[in-house]
Amino acid sequence: MQANLREHIEKIISLTDDEFAFVQSHFITKQFSRHEFLITSGQPVKHTYFVISGLIKLIHTDDNAKEHIVAFAMEDWWESDFQAFYKGTKATMSLQCLEDTTVLCLTLDGYNSLCSGLNKMEYFFLKKANAGHIAAQQRILSFLTSNARERYEMLLKRYPSLFQRVPKTQLASYLGVSRETLSRLST
Amino acid sequence: MQANLREHIEKIISLTDDEFAFVQSHFITKQFSRHEFLITSGQPVKHTYFVISGLIKLIHTDDNAKEHIVAFAMEDWWESDFQAFYKGTKATMSLQCLEDTTVLCLTLDGYNSLCSGLNKMEYFFLKKANAGHIAAQQRILSFLTSNARERYEMLLKRYPSLFQRVPKTQLASYLGVSRETLSRLST
DNA sequence: TATTCTTTGTGATGTTTGTCACACCATGAT
DNA sequence: ATCATGGTGTGACAAACATCACAAAGAATA
């Protein structure tokens, strides 16, 4: 089960068996069913999640109760309401399953203990944070430079599997267009 | 001159004089005039920059030679084409001065030496990377939830000084709307 | 002073996208 | 089998926004 995690981490740093045992001791495994919430807006955020299998969405609900998808997370992705997680404040976003999902859970104490106990892990999280920053900036750029059709095509090219796994309504919400407009793009 | 840097870093970690001397030794100061380029698209990216004074913009130029502003950076901000900087690849974006600007320059070797030589600095950069990720995600959210007027008002509320320092054409490019549309929002 | 460049506003018009309404189909629950 | 539910496509119309064109005011420069 946690082989995924080791393989994932070792793409960036190498670990001895003892070191991985130490890493592993900070995580607990949890399972969630489709539609279940890992994080609920307004509630405290106890964990950062590493997705073992399944698919989840990070969403923000606006004043008109309209839902906007800030991010998807699938196998080998880390996700949380990071702002709330690091600051210890209440969630402004929710994290919900699109499929039955298995995750590894890491608390903030666990995160800090990992970083201070095994310095390589701080380096690992630094790399991950930088990658997250760069990816988010690329998405900003797609809003600046591209219309709905182009953003849709870029998304499909980059993550073809989403097309199979996620209803188009959800893709529309991620792309920032209405369901109807997305439906009309195919032609 | 580098007092800014020390104060900036000590908002997150504390440093002895010796430690700060070590940090300081990794930076060189450079001055650029308005319109000058710190990074040119297609060229190697030698540095990450810490802005001492002035104002710069991170831009991407699309196929139609239209310029899009990915980020502004003013006093106490870090900026670069991070993807190219960390990977050692050629820049896909440019970094250009909107005002006469003084920056501290850090090479990739310097960055790595800083992180390995003084562990607190790795922690510092981790915090900064996380903050960058969260800020970028907030901007994505503004594209998903808000129209041009709302994004404009949010920007002015958050960074009122930009309104004084930057022509509206540039603000429009940052917000992802045309100059004309922005001009008509005021009413 | 004369002149060029930058910045900004604004009208006219077309394109893109959102919203509302309705229909159809598949799926799973009772 | 029947019923609800969620996902999808599409027509009609309205709103938001882009583009093109032109004008005017201010800043920079010769």
Automatic annotation (TrEMBL), chains A, B:
CDD domains: CAP_ED. It comes from the Bacteria. InterPro entries: cNMP-bd_dom, cNMP-bd_dom_sf, RmlC-like_jellyroll, WH-like_DNA-bd_sf. Residues 30-115 form the Cyclic nucleotide-binding domain. It comes from Flavobacterium rivuli WB 3.3-2 = DSM 21788. This is Crp/Fnr family transcriptional regulator. Gene3D superfamilies: Jelly Rolls, Winged helix-like DNA-binding domain superfamily/Winged helix DNA-binding domain.
